[in-house]
Amino acid sequence: MAHILIIDDDPWICNIFQQILEAEGHEISTAHNGQEGLDQFRQRQADLVITDMVMPVKDGLKLIMELKKEFPGASVIAISGGGVINAERYLTLAESIGSLETLIKPVSKQQLIDAVNIALRQPILGKPLPAQ
Hints:
Layout: E1 3-7, H1 11-23, E2 27-31, H2 34-43, E3 48-52, H3 60-70, E4 76-80, H4 87-96, E5 101-104, H5 109-121
Parallel strand pairs: 1-2, 1-3, 3-4, 4-5
């Protein structure tokens, strides 16, 4: 299916998301902060990035901005449980800079699967994805 990069500073979230998405047939890579995730994406572009918004080293907003600048067609799902500001504000900012989907933690298994399926069907740079 798809190669998905999960970026979250909580190893438990990475592990749970990885298990759920591997069971759906996807190949998963994980990173624990935005800089590590960006470095991994530069080495091997993923079909989809799922990123937390509040992380050390490089937060989700900076990650999405840099990712979209360097790789305009990158597909991103932003997730947040909040932080200094509430989750909805983080996710509204993420949408404004190019996130395809947003999810508020805690995320259910079905919410994650649905968001991934929707994001993977989105056209990249205005070109529809081939039928699968």
